[in-house]
Design brief:
The complex is a heterodimer of chains A (331) and B (219). In chain A, strands 1, 2, 3, 4, 5, 6, 7, 8, 9, 10, 11, 12 and 13 form a 13-stranded mixed sheet that branches. A 3-stranded mixed sheet of chain A has the order 15-18-17. The termini of chain A are far apart. In chain A, a hairpin with a 4-residue loop joins β6 and β7. Chain A has 3 domains: 42 residues, no CATH class; 131 residues, Jelly Rolls, CATH 2.60.120.1440; 72 residues, Phage tail protein beta-alpha-beta fold (3-Layer(bab) Sandwich). Chain A is built from 10 helices and 18 strands. Chain A is α+β, with helices and mostly antiparallel strands. Chain B has 219 residues and is mainly alpha-helical. Chain B has 11 helices and no strands. Chain B is elongated. The chains are: A alpha+beta (331), B mainly alpha (219). At the A-B interface, α2, α3, α4 and α6 of A face α3, α4, α6, α7 and α9 of B.
Amino acid sequence: MRPELTKYIVFTYFSGDATAMQKQMIEHWLTNVRNVEIYFEWLEEWEKMQLQFQPDTLAALENVTEKLFQKQEPTDVELKSPTRRVSKKLLLLWAAASLIMMGFASYLGREFVMYRTYETSFGELNKFYLDDSSQVVLNANSTLKVPRWGFGKSTRHVYLEGEAEFSVQHTADHQYFKVHTADNSLITVLGTEFSVYTRPKQTNVVLNKGKVELSSYIGNNPLTMSPGDRATVESDGEIKIEKLSEKQLVQHAAWKEHRFIFDDTPLKEVAERIHEVFGVVVKINNMELASRTATGSFPAKNAEELLTSMSYMYSFEITKTENKIILIPNP
Amino acid sequence: MQNKDLIEVSGEKGLIQTDTIPEADSDKPVDKEFFIRSIFRTDVKKGYDLLFRHYYTPLCSHAVRYVYSKEVAEDIVSEVFLSFWKNAVHEHITTSFRAYLFISVRNKCLNYLKWELNRETSEELDEVTLESVHIQPDRLMEFDELYMRIERIIAGFPPQNQKVFLMSRFGGKSYQEIGEILQISKKAVEAHISKALVEFRKVLKNPNMLIIASLSGLL
């Protein structure tokens, strides 16, 4: 006659308070597949009673759904192929599955779990410390990925897209801090202050203090920068170093105070900058206006604020449509 | 009015819980997922949503017992759901959804622990396959033993050590922030964390269980 195993005993077991005898009973009980299902049923029930924390289910569902359907869009194209034997729904599912598998198998396994991602939206700044006490200021529309584990154990690797300023702490065991950029440039430092700009247009590094080494994707010998230098990675992988004036250095760091400093900058470039930082498209339909240059320091937390204050000085009108701003020269 | 409500409530309960199982299915476990499964048959996306809403919280709560980080726990559970969808698991599942999800989450947690203790960024996480869902009772209980062990390790930390560890792992705070809150130096925070990890390794070593042995091989 088998002893009766109650839910109460199993709950006691889940809580880690079961005796050896009870554990043996449970082990025997679990040899029946049907009981394995009951085991999970009770585990779920016990877990609901003993919640460790309350996650935001709806936000998570939204997040997961977004990930699923973002990658699914191109399936419409594949569905047009004349395979009619399989039901449309099944096909859609398989198409989605294979696409997600291809695009995501590696991405998910690693990115999702392996990295902590810091992200800023348009117009947003974020200042934070990494586990090694290095400080990072992330400019708008930028992403920094930091390995969740292993960071600061041997070498400190981070992955940047966008713009950021780093104040890297020198560690007692002289660990390198390495910034990987979107165009496969690599910045290697021990402990310094520098800022990195890496967007589709180009990658550049400005060094405030200390010493950094920079190499581009072509993998030539790394170049060593001195304070006040700006290194620009050209599209052919060559690195150009120039000495910045005091004024230019200030200009470079202005974004940290939500400030834009221009020095004989064509409005066309101002428009590009606004697009990078605020995600707003600025259209200048007039050639003459586009090549007009701006000089000065403009505090602004959004595109409209910046353009409004510039419009008085450079005599243009701004017209705002949905996510687009058009500049028209004053007559 | 009241009568009508009563009927509706009991009707719904009957639908979800199927208190009475047909005799032919009596070798199958009590089917509490009948409702979700029937939705899956008519509308996959809706079934998936329902499944997610139903199991996300208990699964996260379970995962966090292994990984001791809310963030990682949520990532792991989300990943299991994503892979559920991409593999269209509902079409060829032989166990309950519940069993599949719990086992997948546990496997992923174990992989995470291996990776974490191994401190190797290059190791890929294994995919949980449907085959691996058919599981031996002793393996089930080893997983239980693992989370219980982890709980005992953490409970055994000295109070300040425990505080620092939980703030770092559970609260997702940086060493700097923890130092500021507890009014101790960053070095002291680091010392607490590394002491905690040493404890972790020590206790997870010397196991007489297979899955923990697979961990300790890396320690």
